[in-house]
Amino acid sequence: MAGFRLINLAKPFLPILPEVEVPYEKIPFDDKMVYTVFASLIYLFAQFPLAGLRKATGEDAAAHAPTVADPLYFFRGVFAMEPKTCLEFGLLPIFAAGLFLQLLAGLKVIKVNFKLAADRQLFQSLTKILAIAQYFVLANIFIASGYYGADLSLPQIVVLNIQLVGGGVFACLLTEVIDKGFGLGSGAMIINTFAVATNLVSDTLGVNQITVDSEGNTEPQGALINLIQGLRAQHKTLVGGIVSAFDRDYLPNLTTCVLVLALGCLVCYIQNIRFELPIRSTRARGTNQMYPVQLVYTGSLSVLFSYVVLFYIHIAAFALIQLVAKNDPASIVCKVLGHYETVNNIIAAPTFPLSMLTPPRSLVGGALSQPLSFVVYSFFILASGVWFAYNWQQVSGMSARDLARDFKEQSITLLGRREQSLPRELNKVIPVAATTGAMVLAAVTIVGELLGLKGKGAGIVVGVAGGFSLLELITMEFQESGGESSLANMLAGGLSL
Amino acid sequence: MSTAVPPGGQRTLQKRRQAKSNKDKQLNQTPTSARQAGAGGSSNSILKIYTDEANGLRVDPLVVLFLAVGFIFSVVALHVLTKVTGKIF
């Protein structure tokens, strides 16, 4: 007997674990599109404010007001997490469980025999259980810390748990519906891309009015709308309105919008850098073609992995500081890790040792008050991204050896190389592309975050890079469907008008 | 003066044995991911988690979508309930 195996832990939970059915027949392209869009829309609607929280007004408001501001402000844009909603933790547990378990299984830390269907199924169930367990643990860390208000009553805690874990379970199931073949590509990534795109639009063009000061003056969320409205606002001068449109720090401003768009364009450019290997068929003569190897070989996954690890470092520190030391600067834990300071009433910024792993909130302010984080944070993102990319390209089933096997099956070989040396020749390109690509993508993320984008920089990198990977898959699927799509016909008809 | 090593003998046998054991090792190695085993799953730039139909409580995808909408509406109802009763439980 193999003894103890981690995947066997999933067995007792199987009867109660919801499992989406695999489609009986091939789903047409149009139906896949509908499933994908609806699942993503439902996810976005599930970012609904939590019920059961005390309102900030009222006679006992001061006693029960939340004592803890948002410590995860710079993860919000990366994992589609909305503060104080059912999806407080967004897609993070799903990404964390998937990336960690698949990487560990690939590195043979967890023993899974992927050749056996039973093992694969147990592994998949374990991933789901781990994701749901993370939602539960994270929710209770936040509830216990006082993020949702000090001294909550027992029913309140139960209701909050139901909403947060329920939101998590449904996020898991929605990604599963897409993953299983009802939708296009990968569920978690496509929903994340949807959320990044939605955030980008609402940060630029959002019209919803948010109260910004005690007199009840409101400003729109969108930066561009804010500029237009600032020109005729009653509580600001004309010049003051224009200046504040560019440098307000409580809501998205135009400077960050332009920076985010510039980063998005940069990632588009980087995505198109590829190394072309000349290939030829071993059967027919004179059919030379190019096999492109993308520079960003692991796509957005390297940045996602860096941020998952960073998140867990921060949440562990948060739990220690808030739950053990009660955020008291005199406590020994806070002397070692630092404590949280509330900024703008919204965000909780960590102080010295922990702040080294936190991107600065603005370039100049960061350079003056936390210069070390420029070094430590950058190094962390770079190193973890490159380490992940190197290992992932080996274990993900698209390594040089696997590609060589695919080439052989399709009777393709590299031009001017012996067929036996195919794995070695591919091995000269693919690990280099993966690590260099991860490094470039990490560098773009770091530049964006050091400029003070508070997670929006990493978000746009993940969104655009992930979007390109998905687009590749979707185009392939569309071509396989033979172009028989009424949606495409409609779009083409619309263009020809 | 070096003498030419005659072909065959111990060394060739050892080499053959080594090559064979290497080959066996590669054959016996379990794949590192579902894709390597030829069963779909994550690729180099796509993270795919759910590709097999595991045992569990089978649900239809449409049921999942409707239940998710139902969950959102139950949160809305909870909001209304707390607003109407004016207190939180």
From TrEMBL, chain A:
| Gene3D superfamilies in alphabetical order | SecY subunit domain
Q: Say yes or no: keyword Repressor present.
A: no
InterPro entries associated with the record: SecY/SEC61-alpha, SecY_dom_sf, Translocon_Sec61/SecY_plug_dom
The source's superkingdom equals Eukaryota
Enumerate the Gene Ontology biological process terms.
protein transport
Keyword Nucleus appears in the UniProt entry: no
Q: Where are the transmembrane segments?
A: 33-50, 89-109, 129-148, 154-174, 181-201, 250-270, 291-321, 374-392, 429-451
Which residue range or ranges hold the Translocon Sec61/SecY plug domain? 41-82
GO cellular component terms, alphabetically, are: membrane
* Keywords attached to this entry: Membrane, Transmembrane, Transmembrane helix
Q: Which family does the record assign? A: Belongs to the SecY/SEC61-alpha family.
Q: What is this protein called?
A: Ssh1 protein
TrEMBL record, chain B:
Cell compartments where the protein resides: Endoplasmic reticulum membrane
What broad class describes the main subcellular location of this protein? endoplasmic reticulum
Per the record, membrane topology reads: Single-pass membrane protein
Pfam families assigned to the protein according to its UniProt record, in alphabetical order: Sec61_beta
> Which residue windows are transmembrane per the record?
62-81
Which keywords appear in this protein's UniProt record, sorted alphabetically? Endoplasmic reticulum, Membrane, Protein transport, Translocation, Transmembrane, Transmembrane helix, Transport
UniProt GO BP: intracellular protein transport
Q: Which domain of life is it from?
A: Eukaryota
Q: What's an example GO cellular component term for this entry?
A: Sec61 translocon complex
Instruction: Specify where the region named Disordered lies, as residue ranges.
Output: 1-43
Q: InterPro entries attached here?
A: Sec61-beta/Sbh, SecG/Sec61-beta/Sbh
- Function, as annotated: Necessary for protein translocation in the endoplasmic reticulum.
Family to which the UniProt record says this protein belongs: Belongs to the SEC61-beta family.
According to UniProt, the name of this protein is Protein transport protein Sec61 subunit beta
Q: What is the organism field in this record? A: Maudiozyma humilis
Q: What is the lineage of its organism?
A: Eukaryota, Fungi, Dikarya, Ascomycota, Saccharomycotina
